[in-house]
Design brief:
homodimer; alpha+beta; Arc Repressor Mutant, subunit A; three-stranded mixed β-sheet; two-stranded antiparallel sheet; 6 helices; 5 strands; 42% helix; 22% strand; binds zinc ion; DNA-binding
Amino acid sequence: MTTPQLTKNQSLVFDVLEKAEGPLSAYTILDKLRDHGFRAPLQVYRALEKLLEYGVVHRLESINSFVACAHPGDDCHSHGIVAFAICESCGQVTEFHDHEVDHRLMAWVRGQKFKPAKTTIEIRGLCEACAA
Amino acid sequence: MTTPQLTKNQSLVFDVLEKAEGPLSAYTILDKLRDHGFRAPLQVYRALEKLLEYGVVHRLESINSFVACAHPGDDCHSHGIVAFAICESCGQVTEFHDHEVDHRLMAWVRGQKFKPAKTTIEIRGLCEACAA
DNA sequence: CAATTGATGTAATAACATAACATCTGCAAT
DNA sequence: ATTGCAGATGTTATGTTATTACATCAATTG
Ligand SMILES: [Zn+2]
Ligand SMILES: [Zn+2]
Ligand SMILES: [Zn+2]
Ligand SMILES: [Zn+2]
């Protein structure tokens, strides 16, 4: 998907996520944008909805948070599955993907005649620095 | 992990999940147990916490719901990663397990010196019946 | 201009989850 | 048996995440 020009609110939300060290909750984003006129959760959620659709932001289901894509423009994103390693201590997120994992999951899915729409792979644990 | 004798509340919550067609939210479980004296969310969440710990119930992160384990006693559960296919139309959940996926993810994790604690794999889409 | 479409603003509410504190129950040590 | 403890439970309140409903605004287009 080619990303269209972002609207004002979408840009504001995206900039906050890009500058952040780690994933942010929608309400944390809201707080960071109060000075820019944001007043209600919906302003954040609506922007996020589009940014997710454009593939420039990912949602981390297991921690109800959002993060800017670490590999913008990477073609794998369009058809591949993205995985995340999330440090439960420092919040650091690493985004990666593995074709073999994709293939195995999609092979299973095909066998079941299941029609996949969105796949979540999230590994929570401790990053190297925090595990030490 | 060997499952200890369940307490009254744990048994009630587990029975509701076992008899359910698909995954249930904590509040749905609460409603189903009002007749048995349940009054507050915490009664459900506390029971779920233990049932998750014993491995007889799984949490589906992407839909904030809980489901009874489909493969109780399966040894793979203790050390392997469980994956779920979730039908967004009828709610049906299929639990499966693929060693190759585990190996690939764990190999990646080792390479990063990341210490995994809990891994989530959830595929949302349409089951065979609903896709037709 | 009128109609449509997409974006935005605002208030209210729904849905999910935890904190804090009191009470009870079973069991072991004295 | 009494005391002390640990685990489970009950209850209220609160915190966090997400959506519904409705009004308004701006750009496009026929
Ligand atoms: Zn990405
Ligand atoms: Zn860390
Ligand atoms: Zn299971
Ligand atoms: Zn279905």
